[in-house]
Amino acid sequence: MIFNPQSPEGSGRTPELLALSRGIAVPALAAAFGRALAGFDDVLFDRAANAGAAQTPFLDGMRELRRRREDAAARFAAHLQQAWDALEAGTPLSAETVMARPGQQEAGLSLVSEHELESRLAVRNFAGVVLRDWKPVLARLDRRLACIAGLGALDADTNPIGPEHIGVAMHEAFGLCDLAAEVRLVLIKLCEREFAAQAGRIYRELDEHLAQSGVMPDISPLQRRDASARPAPVAGEPGADAGPAGDADPAGMQQPPAWARRFNAHWAAQADPQEGDAAGGSQSMILEALHELLAQSRDARGASATGAPEPRAHERPLSQHEMMSVLSLLQATPTETLRAAVGDQSESLAQRLKNEVLSGATRLGVDPGQARLDPKDEDAIDLVGMLFDVMLDERELEGRPRELIGRLVVPFVKVAMLDRRMFVQKTHPARRLLNSLAEACEGNTGQSQAERTLMGKVEEIVDRLIAGFNENLTIFLTLEEEFRDFLAQHRRRSEIAERRAAETQRGQEKLEMARARAALELEARVQDGMLPAAVLGFLREPWNHHLVLSLLREGEDGPAVGEALATADVLLEEVAQARRHVVGKPWLQAIQPQLRKVFASVGLHGESSTGAIEALHDTLQAIAQARPDLERALPELPRVSLPAAPEPEPVALDLGADVRTDAIDQADAERFRRMEIGTWLDFVDKDGRVQAGKLSWISPISSRLLFVNRRGIRFCVASPEELLVMERLGRLRPHEDDGAFDSAMQGVIDRLGPPSATLH
């Protein structure tokens, strides 16, 4: 992060308060970390006792931690002191910059070890948990510390005692110890459990002290809730970044999702103003408004459009017991027509479900001519049917993933009938389970072992739900917690894959740049086309290969690059002298060591390189003597893999041949250049399917933006201009990560909203 300490918004520095704040926070955080460390060896001993044959790493880790505990605690404190010193100097330290470890990243095409990547991701996860649990107090601390430091702003990346810097301090502390990868991850997880709450209390104490000292006293703290009494969302979980768990209201609504805001706008255009704001009101108000909207939609279409006959006096609605019995039969043994409706985008799941329920009632001895659906039960079927219609149509669900998600339709109709709060309560276990399962299935083609393992777990969860769900919703909570833990492990692997994708893209662009520069240098030296064959062959193959490798290792201004260019220039100068028939010159003597380096880069060493140099020497001498018959060819060179030019990266969408990105207004494209890493966008294909992409990396070479999917796999590399064209074509839009359930509900409201809408 580039930070400007001269922002005009900053107040004057207050050294006394800075010193006081350091005295309150830094020693307390260091002491809390030290106390947590003191208990970790016992935990490792318990882990070893339960690990069986895999106990050795934990025992070794326990001994190493005891040996280096004081050193680790001192290193933790040293980083916090360093970060605070930078704050007092007016140049806040970026936690991301420290974690990136400049030098290691730029070492040619080398990759960070998986052990190192997992450690970095674990401390980032720790930081995310602390930030979510203590977000309000940390937001106030950022402002108050910036105020007394005389800075315009601080954020999570530059707050010297914030969770990000604590994570870096932990990473450096444990990096001092010789620990197995699994042991280090256990220790970081223990810090999340034992140390995070203590850090939060220190934040609160410092924030209150600064407020009492008159530092921005007008910032009103939100009503506090004990962080230990509320569940923290899992890192990377859909909706986890929307705010801390404690921001939820008692009903579990949190901030209204996108579909509720859209619904409110539609409803406000129809409803009596005295009825109030549906989306901003209670859950019961939203539910009643939804039912009213469904009724209006049916009335607007007429009974024939729904396929449901007009109710007759002798008909009675099916009881809830009868409905549950029919749905349980469909859940255990879905009919072929219902299975076909899941795979057919042209058929309405809601209508098919209603037909199947009425047909299934006959198996219970109910006369189909005497029965109809209760309006509220019909509403539940319509909402769930349309919800799954939208999800299956708009999400990247094909083949086995589509079939597995489709098997959930009947269980979710039962949930909707038992507990209507599922539609309005974000924390409802059924919708949380559906969000997680949809995330695991979306775009999962089963190409990698990790994807196949994930799909296997999805199938297991769906099978257990189908077999075990009667009318007790507890099974959703049990399965959701189990699958959430499994998915968290998969996300960690996805984050590692994401970093690999960024490193691969960086390597490809460095290679592309090196090849382009080498091609320019070569063309400038061989453009006259009159060079002798041996010299031309030398420049086109071993020298070009050597120059590309030098550019990759050292960059454009590296000493090896300058030496390679100088070698070629000296060789060409000697060719020019030979053409002037200079006789008796000791050809190539000044650059023999450099020539040996060039030939060594393609595998010629010792006598082989001497023979190649002699061929160049004899060729120059033959030219000087005007004896072309004495020119010698280079010996056969080893077959080396010259770096191949990377294939042009396709953008996620076909922009069309008539679209020119060179005509784009650069001021509009600047918005994409300024986009923050981690931003999600929705990419819409020509069939209307939506895939979410996360901005993972921006090339400092080409300014192209790398997007990855939820499994960390690269699926789009595009320039800001190309992204702007996508946006104008309606193929790119901001991503609102409310989860699959809320996204589909927004689609349901869209279908219900316009007067001409149908129930699909």
From TrEMBL:
Residue ranges, annotated region (Disordered): 217-256, 298-318
Segments of skewed composition (Low complexity): 231-252
Annotated protein name in UniProt: DUF1631 domain-containing protein
Native organism: Stenotrophomonas mori
